Every structure is written in C-alpha cells, then in structure tokens.
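Entry type: protein chain
Record version: 2
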Amino acid sequence: MNLEQLQGVVEIARTGNFTRAADALHLAQPSLSRQIAALERELGAELFHRARGHVSPTAAGATLLPYARRILADADAIRQEMGEIAGLRRGRVRLGATPSLCTSIVTEVVGAFRDRHPGIEISVLERGSRGLVDALAEGELDLALVTSSDATAASPVSLTRTPLLVEDLVVVSSSTSPPLAEDGRIGLADLARLPLIAFPRSYDLRVATDAAFAGAGLRPAFVVEGPEMDAVLRFVERGVGVAIVPALVHHGRAELRATALTAAMSRTVSLARRADMPPSHAAHALQRTIVATADRFASAGAFISRAG
C-alpha cells in the first residue's frame, strides 16, 4: 500500500469514474486501474463496484475511505512541517556552553538568533568542557562551545572542532576600587597577596590557575571559595575581592575593571559538534550566528582575538 494508491481510491470515490480520476491525478487511466487492482489484491477485497458509466465504493471501499483520507491528510501535514523546519520557521536546537561562555557570548548568540528565527526553540545546557563533550557524544547536544585544547581527546566519538576565539585570563576588580597596577599588569606574586575569590575545584579555570600559582611556589589568599561564575562577578562588583576570569565575561561590564597578568595565560574557545552527524537546518543556522558573534567580540573586546 502506498500514498499514490490511496490518492487513487479517494479520487475515484469523489468522481465516480476511473477516467476522470486519472485525469485529476495526471495519470493514464490504465495506470490508475493497475494501481487499484494491485491494492485490491493486497487487501483481498474489491474496493469499487464497476458499473457502466459509474463507479461506487463497495463495503470494503467505504471502510477504507476515511482511513485513506486521514493518512493523506497526515502526509500533507508532515510535508508542511518538514518545509517549515527546512525554512527555519520552526524546530529545535540544543546548545551547550561552559558557565563563563553562558554569561558572555551565549547571551548575545541566543538574542541574535531569536531575532532572526523566532520560531526555533533553543535549549541551553551549562556544563564544563568535559561534560559538554560527553553530552555531544551521547547525542544530547547539537553544538557545544568548549574551551581549552584537549578536552575532546577522550571523546568516544569523533568531533569536529572549529576554533573561534583566543581569550586572555584577566584579573577583575571593582571599577570603584583603585586600579590593581599602575601599568595595567599584575604579577602572580602580587596577586597572591590580594583577597581572591576562587571558583569550584571542578572548573577547568580553577585547575589552570591553581597550577600557575603552584608552579610559581605561591599560596594565594582565598576569601571566598566555590561560587559559580555569576556569583563570583557579583562578589567582585561589591568589592569583596578580585578574581581571575576569562576576558569574555568582562566584556560589556562597566562595574568591573580588567587587569592583565604579566604571566600571560589564555584559552581557546571552540565550537564542537559530532563529525558523524550532519547538522540540522536549525543547528547550521545557529552555527553561523555563533561565528558572526565571535567575530564581533574579537573586533570589539580587549584581551580577545580571533583564533587562527
């Protein structure tokens, strides 16, 4: 049974004539007759009474008709919905990002994407880079913004990574407090003597900064330890302490002052997706928005440059 056969059944019942039905379907009458005969053989029942000059449904044909109309209506609905998805009028895309990127570039990406494609639903998952890679591997995400260089190496599936930005790690302090250094740069030894706000130990950023202090033989003075990105920034704005953060989170925040580290540290922000799964129309459109937004950040923000 196929849609063409069901279209034939509905059209023959409507016109009461094989020839007129074939004309309406742009078929030769013998071709339509063969389709209906094949369907009758498959169902084991005659569908039409074939009288001279008029054709009418049998009991079996009358039973089939409402099902045929429903199936054809569902097929039309599917075609329409698929067209809307292909035309980016509806759909869903799943994006993952690290906490620091969720508070910076992701907010700009989502806003720009929703302006262009208001019918597309966006689901955002906030995790560390390793967790995002796992989510991509398990099919929970379409795209992910990850940081650092080797987080994807342990993935059980092949990932495509597109480097977008290189951002410096900077020290942020309250803009209402005096500058941390006259020349705009501060060393780890001076930083270790300041009240520091530290991220959870599970953060890749915390691992990197702890390693830098340990490598210099320093033990920083933490005044607050363990809050997430939003809370850290609010603590800094209130003057509770200072924090080492990626430069992207400082972008556009007038309440924060950024100071460069003399021992420069940076990280690469990349867009990752599964290599064995082509992106959907919505994911492809979101990917274009992410790249365009990254370009704007690179051209407008201090301590941020285009990768490559």
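Comment: DSSP finds twelve helices and 13 strands in the chain.
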